[in-house]
Design brief:
Blueprint lengths: L1 H10 L5 H10 L2 E3 L2 E3 L2 H13 L15 E11 L2 E12 L15 E11 L2 E11 L13
Antiparallel strand pairs: 1-2, 3-4, 3-5, 5-6
Length: about 140
């Protein structure tokens, strides 16, 4: 068996000890009374092992950059603009909402939002009924 191992290593010197042993044992044929080494099949198996590169570990993911955004929320009643919040800021990666404040309103108000982040722009709207004159942070679903 050592002669067959030397033959394999002579042909494929980059193989590890474990690869040579796997090629030798994996190519053995069953015969009555045990196993018989098939050197030709072992060489083919070793050649396959030599071609298949060892897996390389995946690189660690790099942290996502922070979210630089520009948010404009416009409040209107009866088609007339009654309040605007224009906010620019930076939020941690993965942020799903950003703050805004519009004060001094009462009654039914239509909110329209435009959020710009990099080259992307998202818009949304909703109707809210104001009870305490403050529309700070009402959710406006982006589309």
């Amino acid at each position: 068996m050592s002669g067959a191992a030397a033959l394999i290593l002579g042909r494929y010197p980059a193989l590890s000890r474990a690869q040579v042993i796997a090629a030798l044992l994996g190519s053995a044929r069953s015969v009555s009374g045990g196993k018989m080494l098939d050197v030709a099949v072992a060489l083919i198996a070793a050649g396959t092992a030599a071609v298949i590169p060892a897996p390389t570990p995946a690189p660690a993911p790099s942290p996502a950059p922070p979210l630089n955004y520009h948010l404009i929320v416009t409040a209107s009643q009866n088609g007339k603009t009654v309040g605007v919040s224009d906010v620019t800021g930076t939020a941690p990666a993965g942020t799903t909402c950003v703050p805004y404040i519009i004060s001094g309103l009462t009654g039914s108000v239509t909110l329209k939002a435009q959020l710009s982040e990099g080259a992307s722009t998202f818009t949304g709207s909703r109707v809210s009924t104001v009870q305490d004159m403050d529309l700070s942070g009402q959710d406006i679903a982006a589309q």
